[in-house]
TrEMBL record:
Ranges that cross the membrane: none
Domain EAL: 1-248
Name of the protein in its database record: GGDEF domain-containing response regulator
Length: 248
């Protein structure tokens, strides 16, 4: 309740900021950045999104917050030479009335090519209402947006989603990358998702790459893209621009 009030004021007071984490290709060039929200509250300190996003989701605040994220991400993207921006959308945002029209309008008024705007959703967003999700994803693809399935392999993961929805990108959940060096199961799952993605012409992003050994194993396995602290932590907009211009 208190956090909810604080959060609604946080936007106006400029306490929210976006950070950007590079998503790199095999040659370590930066293909895109994932936008991640941060709330630096003078009252509560650094509030992690895992704490305030669910609170925003329980109220209509998520829409105001989501709009702020989209606009901020677009503003950053405009100065990058070629990279895409990947924006997280929670299930509730995805179910918003006229979601597609809303996103299209914001991206268009920023004068940005939808091909440089990636929408990250989890399978939970699809699972809730598969019919409606199919319609939304189809429309977004038609408009030229990139679609990524986030945290792939966790929750109600289904190959059906991959068959049914045209996706641009699969993001392998970091729990599998973490387990890769220890467990046969994780390694096998990572390998098969990489092959599946390649066979279907999708980008596959391994998340949570924290060590040189993981990076090497993923490259050997043929993974197209990597993201994680070993490559770069999320950085502020200024630093993201420098990285984008240098390309690595
Ligand atoms: O950045 P961090 O690891 O703390 O993110 C924790 C969770 O918050 C992740 O699941 C991430 O997808 C989510 N998250 C981060 N930024 C945003 C955002 O701008 N919008 C939404 N809906 N979720 C976000
Ligand atoms: O759920 P989602 O994939 O959107 O979550 C993204 C979150 O993962 C971000 O908040 C980011 O801070 C975090 N993250 C990014 N790279 C790493 C990593 O290498 N290790 C760990 N533990 N977390 C990471
Ligand atoms: Mn994500
Ligand atoms: Na993820």
């Amino acid at each position: 309740r208190q956090i909810e009030t604080g959060l609604s004021e946080a936007i106006a007071k400029g306490e929210l900021k976006l950070v950007f984490q590079p998503i790199v290709g095999r040659d370590l060039n930066i293909a895109g950045f994932e936008a991640l929200i941060r709330w630096c509250s003078p009252e509560y300190g650094m509030v992690p999104p895992a704490m305030f996003i669910p609170i925003a989701e329980d109220s209509n605040l998520i829409h105001e917050l989501g709009d702020w994220v989209i606009d901020e991400a677009l503003a950053a993207l405009k100065s990058w030479p070629r990279q895409y921006v990947s924006v997280n959308f929670s299930p509730r945002q995805f179910r918003r009335h006229n979601f597609v029209g809303h996103v299209v309008e914001r991206v268009a008024s920023a004068g940005v090519d939808p091909g440089r705007f990636q929408i990250e959703i989890t399978e939970t967003a699809i699972f809730d209402n598969a019919e409606r999700a199919a319609e939304i994803l189809f429309k977004l693809r038609q408009m030229g947006f990139r679609i990524a399935l986030d945290d792939f392999g966790t929750g109600y993961s289904s190959l059906y989603n991959i068959r049914r929805f045209a996706l641009d990108c699969l993001k392998i959940d970091r729990s599998f990358v973490d387990g890769m060096g220890r467990e046969r199961e994780s390694a096998a799952i990572v390998h098969s998702v990489i092959h599946l993605g390649r066979a279907l012409g999708m980008e596959v992003v391994a998340e949570g790459v924290e060590t040189a050994a993981q990076l090497e194993a993923l490259r050997v396995a043929g993974c197209s893209h990597m993201q994680g602290f070993h490559l770069s932590r999320p950085v502020d907009a200024e630093e993201a621009l420098l990285l984008a211009e240098n390309g690595s």
